[in-house]
Amino acid sequence: MNTSDIDTTNMCSHLWHKLMDADGVYHQIWQTINDDTELTAVVRSRQLHIYRNGKKVLVLKGKAEPQIIRVDAVCDLLMDKKL
């Protein structure tokens, strides 16, 4: 998925910085979404919902802890950061 296809205008500003800033804790996930054709994402309720092959795997939030829905390789990136 091309991350430029994701409408980030309604995203929480804290989450936006965690994703977009090069030193942000979710930046590697943002890059993975762009590189992995099986991943898609959509902003809902100011949070980023991430899907693999149409099944939700992860919800990233600005100030709250991320919500892992399914065990997935993209979730392993969270463990690498030890959030």
Overview of this structure, please?
- This protein is α+β, with helices and mostly antiparallel strands.
- The chain is built from three helices and four strands.
- It has helices spanning 13-20, 27-35, 73-81, and strands at 39-44, 47-52, 55-60, 67-68.
- It has a four-stranded antiparallel beta sheet with strand order 1-2-3-4, with helices on one face.
- Strand 1 and strand 2 (47-52) form a beta hairpin.
- The longest helix is centred in the middle third of the chain and has 9 residues, at 27-35.
- It is globular, with a radius of gyration of 11 Å.
- Report the strand count: 4
Largest sheet strand order: 1-2-3-4
Q: N-to-C SSE series?
A: HHEEEEH
Mean pLDDT: 90
Q: Fraction of residues in helices?
A: 25-40%
What gyration radius follows from the Cα positions, in whole Å?
A: 11 Å
Oligomeric state of shown chains: single chain
Principal-axis shape: globular
**What is the terminal-to-terminal distance?**
25 Å
Parts with pLDDT < 50 across at least 5 consecutive residues: none
Number of helices: 3
How much of the sequence lies in strands comes to: 15-25%
Largest sheet: 4 strands, antiparallel
Structural class: alpha+beta
Quick synopsis:
The protein is built from three helices and four strands. By secondary structure, it is of the alpha+beta class.
Strand-helix topology:
Blueprint: H1 13-20, H2 27-35, E1 39-44, E2 47-52, E3 55-60, E4 67-68, H3 73-81
Antiparallel strand pairs: 1-2, 2-3, 3-4
Keywords:
83 residues, alpha+beta, 4-stranded antiparallel β-sheet, 24% strand
